[in-house]
Queue: 2 jobs
Job 1
Amino acid sequence: MPGAIHFPDDLPKLAALLRAGEVVAFPTETVYGLGGDAGNSDAVLKIYETKGRPRFNPLIVHCADLAMAETLVEFSPLARMLARFWPGPLTLVLPRRVDARLSDIVTAGLDTVGIRIPDHPLAQQLIRAAGVPLAGPSANPSGRLSPTTASQVDRGFHGEVPVLDGGPSRAGVESTILAVTGDTVTQLRAGALPRDEIEAAIGRRVAVAAEGGAIVAPGMLSSHYAPNAALRLDAERPETGELYLAFGEPPRTATGEVLNLSPSADLREAARNLFSMLHRLDEMSDSIAVAPIPHTGLGEAINDRLRRAAAPRP
Ligand code: TXA
Ligand code: MG
């Protein structure tokens, strides 16, 4: 049953497809994921093929609950403390259990696994119904904008992938990725869970991985999440021919189309709108100017995605 957007009634059928080694796009609170059985290498290869991802990078493995996660990775006391954010927009990179039922392609041969329990009822129901953890990168062709609605997924893959429609993603940017090694917590990717909230909860600092450091994640490539249009960042106002993506009060001189990430300058609302609005502006124009966004809290992830979207393309 290719190509269609599916509603919860079809969940058992989609779960059966996953068990049979097919890929299915599913909703999460961050962005839509392109899911496949994490224990089945053919299914994982289909994920790469569908995305057109040029090289194998480790994928996040989505679990329905902590019990499922515990079959795959080892939890230190510090990792357990961080797992309190689950279900939620946090991915923990933890040591792989020797007996984990995981394809080596999922981990790209690493001895660690990126694990996450998504906070979306349909994601959890789908994983439970499939009965297997789901490998799941964002459900977009490689390098393009991440999808926050079922119809964006459908357009991105030209109707060739079944999509479970769970409505618009609540958070709108990908999960925060943390590596936990011994007593050290390192943020590999800024995301929907702000670093300051994590630090407050665990009572210690979270280091930030150096760009181009030892652990490289594709989300850390300098050009990623890219629209077709050229992006100009930190723009106080649009220039002639540019569409404007505002944040807070838009400039009075703004002409042409203006979309506003958050008229009340709320970072949560801005994160939720970010990819959808970039998708819309991208369809309307070749040049987009984006207002300055504060770097605090969720602003770290928003500015990270904007920087990559604006970077020169390879
Ligand atoms: O919010 C999200 O995280 C979304 C939704 C669908 O869950 N998923 C997502 O997956 O953004 P993806 O594949 O686009 O990004 C996964 C990132 C990659 O940058 C990958 O390199 C990193 O996680 N990653 C996964 N496992 C890793 C590991 N063992 N060590 C280091 N990085 C890892
Ligand atoms: Mg992605």
Job 2
Amino acid sequence: MKVATENIAAENLAPTIRQLPPGVVNKIAAGEVIERPASIIKELMENSIDAGANRIDVHIAKGGIESIQVTDNGCGIRGDQLELAVASHATSKIVDADDLFDVHTLGFRGEALASIAAVSQFTLRSKTHDADSGFEMQITGGVTNEIKPCGTPNGTTVIVEELFYNTPVRRKFLRTTQTEMSHITEAFTRIALANAHVHMTLIHNDKTVHDLPSCENWKNRIADFFGNEISDSLIAVESEESGIRLGGFVVDPVHSRAHNRMQYLFLNGRHIKDRSLQHALAEAYRGLLLHGRHPIAFLKLDMPADRVDVNVHPCKLEVRFQDGGKLYSQLLGTIRNRFLTTDLTARQAISQPPETNLPPTRSPYTQDDLPLQSTQRTTDWTAAPATPQFDRSHSGDKFSEPFPSQSPKQPVDIPNDGQQWHEQVHSDFGSEGGLISSPIDQGAVSDQNNRALQIHNRYLVTQSDEGIVVIDQHALHERIIYEQLRQKVLDGKLESQRLLVPEPLNLAPAECSAVIEAKEELSTIGIEIEPFGGDTVLVQAYPAMLANHNPGEMLRNVIEVLLSADRKVEQRDVVDELLHMISCKAAVKAGDKLSPEEITALLEHRELCQDSHHCPHGRPTSLVFSREELDKRFKRI
Ligand code: ADP
Ligand code: MG
């Protein structure tokens, strides 16, 4: 008996190995390449570019879930090759393994068409320029129908319908039309940016989303997608180092985003993501952007094909550079040098309130800030890349101080040795003996007992039992407003200001869908919007708290919060994020001169806060320098 059991167990442990049929292999491969409709747009458009097309038309129905059609006027496919084109690992772009390290086309794996055809009802129509007629091939239910001649213009049309009809799990993962459409638009944008010379159109449900004529000047294509505000702020960068050419634009730091999705990087015409180069970009903007903000850039890298391995990622989104370190320093050095020679004064004047009386500087960098001089281009920046995080400990809080190097001297010099001058949460503020009265005796407030000194128009210095208290006026005010707003939202009493004339706002498609999807959440914080056709929305009402702010600008900030929020975050969290944003906008800024009454009001409200010690972003609102520490440092004890 025992033996028999063992046999069964052994049998169970050794299943039969089978060669999978091609249909299954293709489905597995498709899983890697074809994640959603946008992946198909990418693959098909790349094929059109590889075919030398100068016109590509993309028609989508229902976010690509119903159908996708890509038509180009490229070289076409011969009738006798149609079947091969959809066979897996069949390509005209490479011949042998050596070619893998010298790829000059976007495609080379010969997998895309096979993968797409494996998970959809698929039609391929093509005509080469020298043929009298075109040919059509259909693959339905995995079966290739007879290839027939057909009338079709020079070039290729691929039609993909009923995507994932035979992979229900994949189909279930598809999101709303709007979400899929925003992915498609992003894929389209990347390819359109990389190929400005190609006339491209994107049509969704018979409505034209983009019609981009061929253009010589890259700026125009950037403007097509991101508007004149961005394209007018482009700063051209260019350099060439040992055969690697870097060109394109960075955007004036006056424009930034809460996410890094507006950092477009193209390598030999292919859109890529590269963390190291993104880091270099962030480094180049160090000190120019507020904490949590990301630069906008459109950069092209061109290098000999054998200096980069593009065969490391199924969608070829990531690549491996032969000398990543050099590239890092080239990018960082080029942009930094460009900033050094760029007059950004106007921008500083805008973002720095006039009361600060800081001397205008030509460039936000001083020579000391800039370890990389033009003569030192070969410095290896990968060796010790500084973190892009702002360091609070020795140069003040840069959240509210975009240009630290401007200030000749920091208002409060907090040494870096946290042991002696510790950042501490003060718990008994306003208690007996303190200079600040408790809320109860506010009626009797006099100059003596509720006094704080405003320093450098950004810090309030006062005293408590314990020692000297330095308050960050912006952080505290932000906290106060946030708590008030949150209470009002909870009570359903947030005042909203209705606009006499609703303000139309032109958005990118992804932004438009995000804001429309969040319409309900937005109304809980007093923002009312209406779709207005195309990618335009109307702002009809917005929080009264932000009366001094431009509604359009306010909505753009809202959109950033929405787009940067994880899709799965709870609605409550999105609202909370938005409240943070509103409080930050509405609060006094570092640099704002406060009247004695305003200072008193701030100190009073500080008492009433549930958490007066941290701003909504979690930074402290005050620091305490204890009397004991002071005594020690003055060698009294
Ligand atoms: P790859 O692009 O990696 O070669 P694909 O599966 O995307 O693989 O395409 C297979 C082949 O079909 C290509 O190598 C190319 O020869 C041909 N092909 C695909 N799309 C087009 C097109 N739009 N125009 C011309 N030829 C095409
Ligand atoms: Mg391809």
